[in-house]
Structure formats: structure tokens, C-alpha cells
Design brief:
- The structure is a homodimer of 413-residue chains.
- Chain A has a domain of 210 residues: Amidase signature (AS) domain (Amidase signature (AS) enzymes, Alpha-Beta Complex).
- By secondary structure, the first copy, chain A, is an alpha/beta fold.
- In chain A, 39% of the residues lie in helices and 14% in strands.
- The two termini of chain A are 21 Å apart.
- An eleven-stranded mixed sheet of chain A has the order 1-3-2-4-6-5-10-11-9-7-8, with helices on both faces.
- Chain A has 13 helices and eleven strands.
- In chain A, helix 6 packs antiparallel against helix 13 and helix 8 packs across helix 11.
- At the A-B interface, helix 3, helix 8, helix 9 and helix 11 of A face helix 3, helix 8, helix 9 and helix 11 of B.
């Protein structure tokens, strides 16, 4: 994989020109893309910028994010050839930081569940996960050092786990969703994929102009709470193994890791996540569902058909539970710095029919807390399995520092 | 003015066909529009729908809201002739409820402060207010019974006050902003303009499928707190008179109205509103500001130039204050059902250079609470001045019932 931080160091030192760094990505795309199929379209006349912390960094943008100079097709024929007038805010933020957009990455239609044809670079017989399929795959395949995705259920952390890359779903609205196709405004969160945690930190810091997100010299030893999310069911063997390995690693590195029981209202929040998502989806996709019913992606359309009956009162009650869950979760972070849990039930499912199950992700999306995927285990078939590092609302620096500690501990095992 | 509720009654009884109701609006537009200048563009081949609670109701849509079959120009040459692919969620919700979109209404560029050429129907020498200039004016001029606007500072309640129409800025995210040009995602709120409070209730209930918003037989007598917002400065004579008249009316109608002192953290929230708005605006308008600087509306561009230096930490602190303010305000509503305050400092300013001052509105936008404008007083020159009725977060039914009580009390004076 291409390390963003390493590229930055080489560019800053003069060892590599920004232009050469971009060319390196373009060459990697030329070599890999015909196998992986992770780009919907590619930019022409791609050039490095000559300033900004992300100069020389080639980025891929999930194709539900508006781009003024590339089509934005949302993974759906309803938007075939669609050209927005403006860039999404996050796209402009990347450009302003010096990055070069090299193309749009595949997305399940409208970031829901209808799969793409993208292959998992770790094992071509398996899904890369979704909905940010292309963004996870292009980083895993070493095509580019940074991509953007979105998560409404588990669409950043899950594909990152399946593809063996680092990813962050930052605190709710740390990154704006302006110009990003909406699924659920309470949940939709823009996230980043990169080779490692340090790379995420440099990317997110540059985009947001937040120096506090930059990695410190050595992350301090965090107090770690381990959460099994029993309300979401049991993980598969490989999901459990990933967390076991991570616990062993952090304990060897001198951290304490103790089991934490989440309050009942947090479990309740997990259960009402789909009520929030589906009620808002009916409004977010109101035009598509009403004016383009036949052209809707079948799985999303079926989901909307099934959830038609959700009453406003049920949604209002769900939002109240979410608020109570957030307050209760804040209490948990009085005693621990980070939580450690599954990124996904197990390794990437076989075939491309399913993009996998977001059941270990959706609570954290609803809570709005920052989550980082760290690859922790390799299952049969070379399939990676990650763990999820979670910090309190607004503490993205803490989530990144904790994830870096876990990543380093795993590297020393 | 055209009363939505009255039109509904006549259509339901067979006294008026839905088609005839639409034609009535089209005729009124033909008669008034050349003077007022409140439409950016008008729909062709307009027809009534034959079902839905809003059949026969002609609506105007603020031109920062996407429409699939009409241009959406945002009041700016940057979007001249722009045709979105989809309707904004609120547009589809109106159509699904049976309404007929007859055109797009004028907006200050990007819903900021650069004025439109629209005249105030009550006095052509005065501004109709902004940013939802056209939506307030077309209802005031009796052209259509219902329009949509948006409020980030005071862009719904203020023009409603200046034009002498009822309007509601509902609870934050009761109406989705999907497909509405973003200024500040923490603040932007879609609102409705109509002839009277009952009309707002029928419109909002039909759009949201929330029967609890429909007006009851007789609104119960509310406990009223009067708020002078001293932190925002003193009102003009006419603004103060509007509240005085409203207090007299509700007291004669049997309600108690007592002065309420807002907690200091609420005043603090008022002060940091611009920090939230401007910091988010830099992201929401990132593409326009970076790629179209010269074509930006001058007042908005100047505002962005001036607020460039806001640090992320200042914004984060402002969001914390907003959260504390919301919690403190919820406590106030333990003792009162509604708050009564100024809708604007006074009557509409003379000329079109300024759309007026949102200083009595912006706190409530940041608090996310439902606000209703009720016309209460007529100043020199026939210029109306409204009062603002405010209920607790999520209690839109209470805000509408309270506003209806105030409206009825004023009618009996």
C-alpha cells in the first residue's frame, strides 16, 4: 500500500516530487484497476498541485460525492452521466489542502446494499464490503494513498476491515456532508481510508486544518474498555480472534484492557438505529422512490417498501433513545480512553452478492463517536479482519492516538 | 390573502374544484407579479392533482431548493440556468401531499444578505425582508396560499413579520434539508409561509404526515413567558409595540403573560451563533468561494472574507455553548408553554438595500426550537409587525396552538 505519511516525508525532503508521487499512483491504477474494478471514472490531465500538505497525494472520491469536473452517478442508472455544478465540501477541502482527485470510486447504489462488481484486492473471490467498496479497495490494492467514503450503518469501518486498510469514521459532522448524497442526515458520516493510522491522521488534519489531529511523538498508553456488543449477536470465529489478538497485543504493550458492559439504553439505541435510518431514507430518497421507482436499486427499494409504515411517533421516540444513549455513552468514557470492539462479524463474505453485515458498526454511527479500523488478524484465504477503536464524541485525536497505540502493539506481536 | 385551510374546506365540500383553486392562484400571479417581482421562474402547463390533502394548493418554492423540472439558480449567476436532477425532499413531500408547484421564488443570493429586487406587497417602498424574500411576498400579495423558505439566522420569521403573513420555522430537522443549498448545517431550517396559523398547521401536517399538528377545536389557554432578549439590544418602537399589543390581547383572552429572564448561557448562545454560521459557511460554500470568488455575491463574499480566521477550536467551543443553551432553555419550558418575543426589531426598513436585522431570530434558530410569526401591529405606512411565538424543541404542535391562541386573541382586540 502507499503510505500517505511516507509520501509526505519524501516529498518534503525533496526525495520525490509531488508530480512523481501522482504518477506513481496513476501507474498503480493502470496496473491494478482492470482486475479490481474500483473506479467508476477517472480524471483526465491529472497533475500534482505545487503547494499544500497533501500535494502529491492522489485521492479517490466515493461516487455519491458531487464533483464539478467528473460525473457523479451514485451507483445508479437514475444518475447516469450526471454532472453536478459544484464539488462537495470535502472534495474542495481536499483540493485546498493540495490533493489531486484521480477518480471516483465505486459505491453500492446510493450507498445502500446493492453490491458493486469491485473485487477484494486481498482475495478476488470475496467482496470488498460496502457501501464504500471502491474506496476501500483502491487503498488496499496500493493504487492511491487516500480515499473518501461514507458510513450510515457500517460503510467505512466494515469494508476497511474486509480489505485490511485503516479507516476513520470521524465524529459526526467533523467533516461536512454538503454535496454528498443523503441517506440519513442523523447518521451519514464522511470517512477516510488510508494504509495506516498515521496516514489517516495526516489526511484528516490537512482536510480540516486541525493540527491537534496530527500524530504525537508516541501515543500514550490508553485505558481500554473491551465491548462485545452482545445485543448485536455473537461474532464469527475470525471476528472474535481479531479482538483477542488485539487485547493480547495491547496488554503486552503495557495497557490494561477490561471488559465493559454498556448500559441498557445503549443497547436500545442499537435496536432503533434502523428506525432512524429508514424513516429518514424515505425523505432523503423521496424523489427517486416516487419518480423513479422502477429504476431504483432492488435491495434499497425493497428496504423502502418494507419500512413504509414507520410512523413519525416511532421515529421521534427513536431519536429520544439515541439522545439518551449518547449521554449514557459519554459516562462510559469517564473511566476509559478508548473502546475496543469488532469491526465486522468476521472476514469478508465469499462472492459479491452481499457486502457483509454492519451490525457491529451501526450503534457507533448513531452515537456519532469517532471510530478507527485497525487490521488485526488474517483469516484463511489471506482475508484480513480488523478491530474497531472508538473514542468519545469529539475526541478524534484520542481515537487516532488510541488506534495508533493498538496498531503499534499489533506490529510488535 | 389566500387561506389554505379555507381552500381545503371549499375543495372538500365540492364548492371549488382543485383545478379552479390553482387557476385562482395563476390569475393572482398574473395580476400581481409584474409589480412585486417575487418569482424567479414559473412552471408551465400547471395542473391540479386529483388527490391528497393539498390538492388545489398552489405553492412557491424558494430558489435555493432543488427542483427536477425547474431551474434552481440560488439567486446567483454561478448557478444561472442550473437544472438539478432531483427534487429536494420537501418539494417531493409537497407533491406527494397533492400540492402543485407553480414556480420558484426569489431568494437573496445563497440565502445570505445580498438583496433581491422583490417589493414588499404592503408598501412598495420597503423591503419584504430576506432571505426568503419571494416566499413571504407571494403569500402577502395573495398570489398563492403556501410557500417554502429557509432560515439560518432569521430568514423565515423576519420576512413574514415585514410582509404581514404567518410563518413557521419548525423544530430543527422536522423538515429535511436534503436538496436545499446549505449555508450552515447546524442552523439551516426549512419553513412555511401562509395567510394564517391554521393554514400553516394544515400545510405542515400534510407535508409531514403528522396529524398531531392539525389544529384542535379550540387552542387551550397557554402559560406565556415574555422574553425581551436584552442581549440582542433594544427593539424599535414598532417592534416593542407589537409585543405590547400581543400581551394585551392574550391577557384579555384570559392567559397570563409574565416576563422571563433567560439564563446567561442562553445569551452566550446568542453571541456565538455567528461563529457557528460562518465557520460552517466556509465549508458549505467552499467550492463557490474557491472556484468562483469573483462571481460571489458581494455581501456574502465580504462576510466570508472577514470570518476566514475562525479557528476550529472556537467553533468547537461555540457548539458546546449551543448544547448548554439548549439544555438551559428546556428548563424554561417546565414553567411556560410558549415564549413570546419580537419577530424583528421593527417594521420593514425603507428601500431594498437591506433585508433587515435577524438579531431577534438567530438565538431560536440555533436552539432549534419551533417559532411562529403572528402579525400583531401595523406601523406607519401600512407596514405590519409581527410577534414570535416559540415552543420547546419538538413541540411544533404546541407552537402552532400557542400561535393560534395569540392570533385569535389579537383578532378579538
Amino acid at each position: 500500500m502507499l503510505s500517505l505519511a511516507e509520501l509526505q516525508r519524501r516529498i518534503r525532503s525533496g526525495d520525490l516530487s509531488a508530480e512523481a508521487a501522482i504518477v506513481q499512483s496513476l501507474d498503480a491504477i493502470d496496473a491494478q484497476e482492470k482486475t479490481i474494478g474500483a473506479f467508476v471514472c477517472r480524471a483526465e490531465n491529472v497533475r500534482a498541485q505545487d503547494a499544500g500538505p497533501l500535494r502529491g497525494i492522489a485521492v479517490g472520491i466515493k461516487d455519491i460525492m458531487d464533483t464539478a469536473d467528473l460525473p457523479t452517478e451514485m451507483g445508479s442508472p437514475i444518475y447516469r452521466g450526471w454532472r453536478p455544478r459544484a464539488d462537495a465540501a470535502v472534495v474542495t477541502m481536499l483540493k485546498a489542502a493540495g490533493a489531486t482527485v484521480v477518480g471516483k470510486t465505486t459505491t453500492t447504489a446510493f450507498a445502500a446494499n446493492d453490491p458493486t462488481a469491485t473485487l477484494n484486492p486481498r482475495n478476488h473471490d470475496h467482496t470488498p464490503g460496502g457501501s464504500s467498496s471502491g474506496s476501500a479497495a483502491v487503498v488496499a490494492a496500493g493504487m492511491v494513498p487516500l480515499t473518501l467514503g461514507t458510513q450510515t450503518g457500517g460503510s467505512v469501518i466494515r469494508p476497511a476491515s474486509f480489505c485490511g486498510v485503516a479507516a476513520i469514521k470521524p465524529t459526526y459532522r467533523l467533516l461536512p456532508t454538503v454535496g454528498v448524497k443523503c441517506f440519513s442526515w442523523t447518521l451519514d458520516t464522511v470517512g477516510l481510508f488510508a494504509a495506516g493510522v498515521e496516514d489517516l491522521a495526516h489526511g484528516l488534519s490537512a482536510m480540516t486544518n486541525r493540527p491537534e489531529l496530527l500524530p504525537g511523538a508516541a501515543p500514550r498508553t490508553p485505558r481500554i474498555g473491551v465491548v462485545t456488543q452482545d445485543f448485536a449477536g455473537a461474532p464469527e470465529t475470525d471476528g472474535a480472534e481479531a479482538v483477542r489478538v488485539a487485547i493480547r497485543a495491547v496488554e503486552q504493550a503495557g495497557a490494561s484492557a477490561r471488559a465493559i458492559q454498556l448500559p441498557e439504553v445503549v443497547a436500545k439505541a442499537w435496536r432503533i438505529h434502523p428506525v432512524v435510518q429508514d424513516f429518514e431514507a424515505h425523505q432523503a430518497f423521496a424523489w427517486e422512490y416516487r419518480a423513479n421507482y422502477d429504476a431504483m436499486p432492488p435491495l434499497l427499494r425493497g428496504r423502502l417498501d418494507e419500512s413504509k409504515g414507520i410512523m413519525a411517533a416511532e421515529y421521534d421516540a427513536a431519536l429520544r433513545v439515541a439522545g439518551q444513549g449518547r449521554a449514557a455513552l459519554a459516562g462510559i468514557f469517564e473511566d476509559v480512553d478508548i473502546l475496543l470492539t469488532f469491526s465486522a462479524p468476521g472476514a469478508a463474505p465469499k462472492g459479491l452478492a452481499s457486502t457483509g453485515d454492519p451490525r457491529f458498526n451501526r450503534l457507533w454511527t448513531l452515537m456519532g463517536v469517532p471510530c478507527v479500523n485497525v487490521p488485526a488478524h488474517v483469516a484463511d484465504g489471506g482475508l484480513p479482519v480488523g478491530v474497531q477503536v472508538i473514542a468519545r464524541f469529539g475526541d478524534d485525536a484520542g481515537a487516532l492516538a488510541g488506534a495508533r497505540f493498538v496498531e503499534k502493539a499489533l506490529a510488535r506481536l
